[in-house]
Amino acid sequence: MRVRTKERLRDFFGGIIPPDIPAKIEARTYVPAGQEWDDLFNTITDMITVHDKDFNIIYANKSAETTLGVPPLDVSKVKCFEYYHGGECPPEGCPGRTCLRTGKSVSVEMFEPHLKMYIEIQAIPRFDRHGEILGVIHVVRDITKRKLIEEELDIHRNHLEWLVRERTTEISAVNERLQREITERKRAEMEKEWLIRELEDALSNLKTLSGLLPICAWCKKIRDDGGYWKQVDAYITEHSNAEFTHGICPECAEKLKEDLNLPKG
Question: What is the mean pLDDT of each run of 10 residues along the chain (265 residues)?
Fold first, then answer.
């Protein structure tokens, strides 16, 4: 006998079809009854287990039986936490317990040491025709390969971020060095300009003597531009920055001694 998919699903899940049930099941218009129904679930590679409110597994597809090592369910009660987590009670943050408490679907990702794999667990509530919760459906997927790829990508991303930080540090150091060099060059330019201004000021104040100077052959006075005769030292002082100190040379000293009738030597 063949029955409609949604009617068969509704009977299986206690009256209300969970919204998260895999699309692969609901996509078919008709499903076979009896053994063929189990065969359909066994084609799904995800682990599917149905639990009552006391965490007993009352149904497991082939993937769940193989991966979890679930014994025949018709001869003994099997607690889900023993086979999923290898524990004696539901673990902290158990999605099945949360689902039973809230009546809402729960999805978590975790590494399960007991199974030695990363898993994605979808806990879907089961209700009866009156809306009372009957238990939980677990759809569990092995996501180990995906997680390993994500971890590898994280390693590469962290390495790239480290390279970027290192390169940024190097660029910052080079930029700071360039800024210091620019500052030093600006200061050197300012000092250079200051020295040039000082030299220009000094040159503007410098008095020089040039050209032919009319000088007396006898007394050695110099005639200035106004026609006045001036002592050499006075004339040079007026026309330059030179200053004079006075003394007597040896020849004049001898002449002075002769004029004063002083002994020579």
Answer: 45 50 44 60 88 91 90 80 91 91 93 93 91 92 93 93 92 92 92 87 66 78 81 77 76 75 66
Give the C-alpha separation, 222 to 225, whole Å: 10
How far is the C-alpha of 216 from the C-alpha of 165, rounded, in Å? 86
Query: What does the block give as tokens for 26?
Result: 């609901």
Under DSSP, the state recorded for 28 is: S
pLDDT at 154: 93
Write down the pLDDT at residue 163.
Answer: 93
Q: Is 67 exposed, middle or buried (CB count within 10 Å of its CB: 0-12, 13-18, 19+)?
A: middle
- Kindly list the structural domains of the chain, giving each domain's residue range(s) and its CATH number in brackets, ordered by start: 2-142 (3.30.450.20), 209-265 (no CATH)
Q: Provide the β-strand partners of residue 121.
A: 108, 140
Residue 172, token pair as written in the block: 């910052």
CA distances from 145 to 91, 119, 141, 158, 159 (A): 24, 10, 11, 20, 21
- Return the residue matching tokens 């809306």: 131
DSSP H or E segment with residue 137: strand 133-142
pTM of structure: 0.52
Is 120 in contact with 109 (CB distance < 8 Å)? yes
Q: How many angstroms from the chain centroid is the CA of residue 107?
A: 31
Candidates 70, 37, 48, 79; CA nearest to 142 is 48
One-letter amino acid at 112 equals: E
Identify the burial level of 185 via C-beta atoms within 10 angstroms of its C-beta, where 0-12 means exposed, 13-18 middle and 19 or more buried: exposed
